[in-house]
Sequence to fold (426 residues):
Amino acid sequence: MSNSPFQRGQLNRIRLHVLPTQRFKTFSISLYAGLPLHESTVTSAALIPFVLRRGTASTPETIAFRERLDDLYGAGFGFDVYKRGDSQIVQFRMDVINDRFVSSDRPLLAASLQLLGEVVTDPVTDNGVLRPKYVEAEKDTLRKRLEAIINDKIRYAAERCLEVMCADEPYRLHPLGRMEDIDAITPASVTKAYRDWLATAAFDLYVVGDTTLDEVKALVAEAFRHNAGEPADYGVSSASKPVKEVQNVVERMDVTQGKLNLGLRINTGYGDDDYPAALMYNGILGGYPHSKLFLNVREKASLAYYAASRLDGHKGICTIQSGIEIGNYEKAKTIIQEQLEQMRSGSYSELEMSQTKAMIANHLRELQDSANEMIGFDFNAVLSKRERSAMQLLQEVQAVTPEQIAAVARKAELDTIYFLRDNKEG
Fold:
């Protein structure tokens, strides 16, 4: 991987990615832990980071754990659980100020990695299992997170569209797991899941800041004690799947506004040569306020409260979300499909091309101002096994022609039309 500014290394099961730089006043640390999405593990694996953040063997009480972060000059600590392609990924993040800017009596990068290492490999246990009161409390947290998705009808419709579309694929699963699994989880079962996770997950540790690969390697050797073995690999999920027939699903709930979502298989993934053209395709279709969906469905026809599209480059899926009056279903569906036809015809105005290129370019340039964004961008390369620097991708996007976008549009196949509507008849 030569095009990346990151230096690569390996320590047992952890792949290391270090960007030595004096541009930032902080050290940004991210640890990614990835497992294949699977219904037997997805809920327990989602619960693990919630429990781990409560305390470590040396700092078992949550309050004391937070005080440790305060002692690191208010270091930030957080985590996310999401999916990329067919992998469920937990990302732990820490940000801590560089010692040069404070009068610290110990190296703050070392102390931060020590804390992260304890969180991941040495959590608080009682009688050999993860602390039961933390497990029970965090089961509630997870339950509330999943309930929040059901209550947020925009998110719910987006998730349901993917669930229907990918019914026979791991991607149908939500990275936070399934509500119906939570009750059955016990401290013993989540402890076993945690040990399996520690033994089998793919671990990638990123550090951006004024340090070196050698220094990070030495600190990780100290901080992560239980990681013998070789790094696990991410299976690159196939970004193409033929569509046999378009699925039409109407679901009824107590809603006042209809949610019309369409799922397309664009059969182009992050690692493919035509990915820059797919970025342009999504941008012109519905990625930005100047896009076709926004202008034609929302502004001109006044058919939608919102209309936008999203691209998942690791799965080769583009989804369209819109909020509409329930009675406008047929009209909205027709006009959205007209935009898809327009995309296939290859007729994009100069303005659409230049504005979309400018929006993508801005985003790629802004990445350079955020250590965490640079980490996220580089991790895409690790996941897809396709190395591109942000500047390289920027050049590739600038060179995309209307013909290349139309070629992506013609490969794209409508797979699912999902409509969430009210309970009234009609």
Observations:
- The chain has a mean pLDDT of 94.
- The chain has two domains: 7-223, 247-421.
- The two ends are 57 Å apart (CA to CA).
